[in-house]
Amino acid sequence: MLTALIDYESGNLHSAEKAFQRMAAETGAGQVIVTDRPEDVARADRIVLPGDGAYPACRAALDAQTGLFEAISESVEAGKPFLGICVGMQMLSTWGREYRNTEGFGWIAGEVVRIEPADPRMKVPHMGWNDLVIDRPHPVLDGIRTGDHAYFVHSYHFRVTHPEDRLAHVDYGGDITAIVGRENIVGTQFHPEKSQATGLRLIANFLGWRP
Description:
Layout: E1 2-6, H1 14-27, E2 31-35, H2 38-43, E3 46-49, H3 55-64, H4 68-77, E4 82-85, H5 87-90, E5 95-96, E6 102-103, E7 110-114, E8 126-131, E9 133-134, E10 149-154, E11 156-160, E12 166-171, E13 175-182, E14 185-188, H6 196-208
Parallel strand pairs: 1-2, 1-3, 3-4, 4-14, 5-7
Antiparallel strand pairs: 5-6, 7-11, 8-10, 9-12, 12-13, 13-14
Helix pairs in contact: 1-6
């Protein structure tokens, strides 16, 4: 089994690489590689797309890598498990509204909009630990319960069109989507590689997931 962690120069992948390699070794899930090569994506069994920074910049950086998004898209269409992290999750949406309107992948209907807490004293970005609220069961959430902590750093959030596509949320002056999922696609707004036991459990579940 081969897991491809996509490098498109939109974030430091060191922590994510170490976390995925650790859980792959512990679960016998095979090899984890960091790559920007479409041919590696094509031969991988599962795909992980991280992303740090602004939605438009991440989308532009991914599109600038010749053939990379096409290889990712073909793998997803073939049914391979896919995990998006942070902006990698946000780009699953139909539209991103950060700075300007940016077209997303359109794999999960919805838009990414600025966080506007009901309490104006709550700061944006939403940064730090928050308690997950599980909305619906999913294999990547096995062993993860409402009240478990995850680590967030973001100013925009994914407002899904269809409630069934939201697997978990957190409360930050209102509901903030934490995990989305549909068919062979999942995405986390938080960073599982920085979320200690909760994040490592999710990574292990993803590595063993067969949609």
